Amino acid sequence: MKNAFLICAGLAACGAVSAAPVTYNIDPDHTYPSFEADHMGLSVWRGKLNKTTGKATLDKAAGRGTVEVMIDLASIDFGHDKLKASYKGKFAGFAKGAPTRVAGELTLHGVTKPLALKINSFKCIPHPLFKRELCGADAVGTFKRDEFGLDAGKAFGFKMEVNLRIQVEALRPE
What we know:
Blueprint: E1 4-6, E2 22-26, E3 32-39, E4 43-49, E5 52-59, E6 64-72, E7 76-77, E8 85-92, E9 101-108, E10 111-126, E11 133-144, E12 161-171
Parallel strand pairs: 1-8
Antiparallel strand pairs: 1-6, 2-5, 2-12, 3-4, 3-12, 4-7, 5-6, 6-8, 8-9, 9-10, 10-11, 11-12
């Protein structure tokens, strides 16, 4: 079963010095979407999503851009493959040409709600091998799964907060 999970992670999208928008391809080997969820107040279950593709577009001069990451939920390392979600967003809060957050909406279990991602770090460098711009980011956000109709365990004291973390790299095409 292949489900797609579109998530806007403040991910790797830094633009070039030019004023025109630049599109970057997500590097699936250096992108790490993960999540954390409570298990009865006893432990934190962590899951990693292993297969990602996507792109990010950024116009540094105009202070705007978009990002989409496709995640195959069948690649989840968590043991629950019935999950399906999508997220789309826009870069926001630009400082010195780089976004500091992503404003978007998460659709999970047929319910759509706003979800902001904070970009903890964002940096672009020349790739040492490919000689093209490479950008990376670390982003985080939190949502309550019961607001999306996923309340299993709530009656037993499970916390409903889910922490979403994304570490991502994206390379400017030739």
